[in-house]
Amino acid sequence: MEVLLENISKKYFKEWIFKNLHFQFISKESYAVIGANGSGKSTFLQVIAGIIPPTSGKINYRNTTVNIDNAHVYQYLSIVAPYQSLIEEFTLKEMYEFHFSFKKKRCENISFQTWLEELMLSKSANKSLAHFSSGMKQRVKLGLAFYSENSLLLLDEPTSNLDSQGIDWYKVQVEKIKGKSTLIICSNQIEEYEQCAQRLTITDWK
């Protein structure tokens, strides 16, 4: 998916988070949006995802030769962020079935068992998500996003709560998705975005 930002700005009360931002995200390229904590990275990603509106400006989404209505862009993207929650009353299997009842799989022939193995969670199929560790929950959120068919994948601090094994797993998944979806990662941790082809600094748009 191509994402064109036309002079977008976002302000909370009297403070500009970013201002007059004009940029084109090229389809199937990978980008890192970097900056210190509190610099506005998460707000920026939520604006791109259509979760919150910009104060001014316009965002255009285009998939190959088709313009996508802003109201429907959620159908083409996945976002993973620390503020998102799983349905903890579900077991992992129920979460998988619920998610893929409205999201198409990136690999149609991938089975639940194969997906579990990819996430290194083979022994947790029928375990309630409420009893998962924070790192396991993060792997589930990432695993659902990585294995969904997305034209746009948005990741905010994606290795939060992951141990060294989980970070290695994350890097493998990023390599698999690169070149298949437009990837935007917001982070201030080099291990989260070192595989991205382009890097943008959020404070350059103040």
Tags for this model:
globular, four-stranded antiparallel sheet, Rossmann fold, 206 residues, 6 helices, five-stranded parallel sheet, 28% strand
Task: Describe it.
The protein is of the alpha/beta class. It has one domain (2-205): Rossmann fold (3-Layer(aba) Sandwich). Helix content is 27%, strand content 28%. It has six helices and nine strands; from the N terminus they run βββαβββαααβαβαβ. It has helices at 41-49, 92-99, 112-118, 134-146, 164-177, 190-193, and strands spanning 2-12, 15-25, 30-34, 56-63, 66-68, 77-80, 152-156, 182-187, 198-201. The strands form two sheets. The protein has a five-stranded parallel sheet, with helices on both faces. A four-stranded antiparallel sheet has the order 2-1-4-5, covered by helices on one side. α5 (164-177) links the parallel β7 and β8 (182-187). α4 runs parallel beside α5 (164-177). The two termini are 26 Å apart. The model has no long low-confidence stretch (mean pLDDT 94).
Structural topology:
Blueprint: E1 2-12, E2 15-25, E3 30-34, H1 41-49, E4 56-63, E5 66-68, E6 77-80, H2 92-99, H3 112-118, H4 134-146, E7 152-156, H5 164-177, E8 182-187, H6 190-193, E9 198-201
Parallel strand pairs: 3-8, 3-9, 6-7, 7-8
Antiparallel strand pairs: 1-2, 1-4, 4-5
